[in-house]
Design a protein that fits this description.
single chain, mainly alpha, 2 domains, 6 helices
């Protein structure tokens, strides 16, 4: 069973990665090009003629590199999504496999991406001090880890409260506990402010907008594709049951 779910997760992740790649290629790459143009303009105005050529050309980054990164990322998330589904199915509510998949994808989108994004919003690749990239990556991963662990603890707390209180009360209390933890963590972790004041505000906004859209496409695709495939694996039935043919009355003479 777990093997089949992992296959479903990989298929869902592959589809999500490909669709997210298409979205990023159409919407996001335009903003990256503008950010790189801004960086080059700043370097020219500062008479910096010692700019090193990138290891990977921009053309490769926008084509093969983008597809490879998105697909690998999607496959990884798909496999983890399948494991998470196997862990929560039947333990949190009594939803069907398809409904559980969709809810889990929405839950993961918020916990894994939106909450850390609020603290550390995405910046174009050309923005930021290269010497601090390690620190910035570390604190971002810490925020993701805190959000995930707080979400797991909140789910367990909801289960305990549901035994004594109503389901809505347990959900509200667990959600409040999760918010307290992530807010405290967000205030405790160091902030990162490395966007130049002269950087075009519209380009930055559009890039972050594209980042949210790409993640939304990725998680929505994973949730829906996994819902369709896991429904078959878990129950042997398609997500949309086939209609039985209606028997027509026999023609009378």
């Amino acid at each position: 069973m777990l093997r089949n779910l992992l296959i479903c997760g990989l298929i869902a992740g592959l589809c999500g990665g490909l669709l997210a790649t298409g979205f990023a290629r159409v919407v996001g790459e335009r903003q990256v090009d503008r950010a790189i143009a801004f960086e080059q303009q700043q370097a020219t105005s500062a008479h910096d003629h010692q700019e090193e050529a990138p290891v990977v050309s921009r053309a490769v980054q926008k084509s093969f590199g983008l597809v490879t990164a998105a697909v690998v990322y999607g496959l990884s998330l798909g496999g983890l999504f399948a494991l998470a589904f196997a862990a929560v199915y039947g333990r949190v509510g009594r939803a069907s496999p398809a409904r559980t998949s969709v809810l889990l994808a929405a839950f993961a989108f918020v916990v894994v991406f939106i909450v850390p994004f609020v603290k550390y919003p995405a910046n174009p690749p050309s923005v930021g001090d290269p010497d601090t990239i390690g620190k910035r990556t570390a604190v971002y991963l810490v925020m993701i880890l805190v959000s995930v662990l707080a979400a797991v603890a909140a789910l367990r707390l909801r289960g305990l409260l549901a035994e004594r209180r109503s389901g809505s009360t347990a959900t509200l209390a667990a959600s409040a506990a999760y918010l307290v933890v992530v807010v405290v963590a967000g205030l405790a972790l160091p902030s990162v402010h490395e966007v130049p004041e002269t950087f075009p505000a519209e380009t930055l906004f559009r890039f972050r907008e594209a980042s949210i859209g790409m993640q939304a496409v990725l998680w929505t695709t994973i949730g829906l594709v996994f819902a369709a495939t896991a429904q078959r694996v878990m129950t042997g039935q398609p997500i949309i049951p086939r209609r039985r043919p209606v028997a027509l009355p026999a023609a009378s003479d």
